[in-house]
Amino acid sequence: MKQYLVGGAVRDRLMGLPVKDHDWVVVGADPQAMLRAGYTPVGRDFPVFLHPRTHEEYALARTERKTAPGYHGFDFQASPEVTLEDDLARRDLTINAMAQDDDGLVIDPYGGQQDLAAKVLRHVSPAFAEDPVRILRLARFAARFADFSVAPETFALMRQMVADGEVDALVAERVWQEFSRGLMEARPSRMLQVLRDCGALARLCPEVDALFGVPQPEAHHPEIDTGIHLLMVLDQCAAQGAPLPVRFASLCHDLGKALTPADLLPRHIGHEGRGVPLVKRLSERWRVPTDCREVAEMVTREHTHVHQSESFGPEARLRLLERCDAWRRPERFEQLLWACECDARGRLGLEHRPYPQRERLLRDLRAVQAIDLGAVSAAALAEGKSGPAIGRAVQAARLSALLDLQGM
């Protein structure tokens, strides 16, 4: 029985990057041998065990055979006869198909070190085509390692997988898992570009794919193309370290522009309202978590109003705060403003322009939050008011707070 460090840990060590997770493969053992050595079984689909002291995962070397379409259509075989090279051969990319033994020796049967040096993402074997999740994983790695290119033969294989309908068999949970991780990488735009170039974006997210080629007014969008604008917005999110709800909202904020009638182009009057049902449909299809879904719907509906809020009077700004339920959900409101700032800066030549709307509306929110609502309600009760009248008193106090800011 021999154990090897494998996959991303080896890759990241060779690249001089911090190693976050350690994955191990055990060769020459069976489940009984692992149990006798004190390991705890945790794998459902194939034998995976937790180390008795470190609690890191150790998987028995295995091979796999395609038995049905989609992600779950595999039959796994693990036995003491499976070699390390056999196990590495089933991995997705050459840079992820390396191992390291206890002495630090790197075992690299498929040219991973060469592809690291050349900065190339290349599939290990034709078996890549058997698992459609690998398209998403490769796109995610393209977003993480933005200076890596995709090998032409790998691109050709991915296009064939799309043509064969493999991506249509992906389950929602895996799509969201990989897509959300890709959105959090250093250059999320590259994930979309790779998926679009191989045809997978049109199958997985037609709402986003439809934005490419849609024109916008050059005065506001020097990049013109709505799809290119979206890529720039996502990279703004990454540059600012935005959390996932902001990045998903940014992905969705302009979906309605794909439905703009031809006679309105390149203007997009009403795209906000047209976009909200598309956000709902995408969120349901991918089973997007509630926090991401709520921010995405709000940003889609309100981003134009936020952009224009510098010209709003106190009454209009208060209505905006009310629609966003800002005093009860301040964190969500802040995420809305963050996404709007990324939208404003995700434009050619405007990446560093100021966005005072964000701080202005946050100042409005702080002023409203500072109101002693208990005192306002008590005063209204003392005047004999009740029910809706108390609500109007609270509303008047909030407006008064914004009017005071106006005069400062």
TrEMBL record:
Q: State the HAMAP family in the record.
A: CCA_bact_type1, CCA_bact_type2
Q: Where does Mg(2+) bind?
A: D21, D23
| Domain writeup | Comprises two domains: an N-terminal domain containing the nucleotidyltransferase activity and a C-terminal HD domain associated with both phosphodiesterase and phosphatase activities.
The record's listing under NCBIfam families reads: PRK10885.1
Q: How is the cofactor bound?
A: Magnesium is required for nucleotidyltransferase activity. Nickel for phosphatase activity.
Q: Which gene encodes it?
A: cca
Which superkingdom? Bacteria
Biological source species: Roseateles oligotrophus
Q: Which family does it belong to?
A: Belongs to the tRNA nucleotidyltransferase/poly(A) polymerase family. Bacterial CCA-adding enzyme type 1 subfamily.
Subunit composition and interactions: Monomer. Can also form homodimers and oligomers.
Official protein name in the record: Multifunctional CCA protein
Q: Keywords on this record? A: ATP-binding, Hydrolase, Magnesium, Metal-binding, Multifunctional enzyme, Nickel, Nucleotide-binding, Nucleotidyltransferase, RNA repair, RNA-binding, Transferase, tRNA processing
Catalytic activity field:
a tRNA with a 3' CCA end + 2 CTP + ATP = a tRNA with a 3' CCACCA end + 3 diphosphate; a tRNA precursor + 2 CTP + ATP = a tRNA with a 3' CCA end + 3 diphosphate
EC numbers, comma separated: 2.7.7.72, 3.1.3.-, 3.1.4.-
Binding-site positions, ATP: G8, R11, R91, R137, R140
Residue span(s) of domain HD: 226-327
What is its cofactor?
Mg(2+); Ni(2+)
**SUPFAM superfamilies with a match to the protein in the record:** Nucleotidyltransferase, Poly A polymerase C-terminal region-like
Asked if tRNA processing is a keyword of the record, the answer is yes
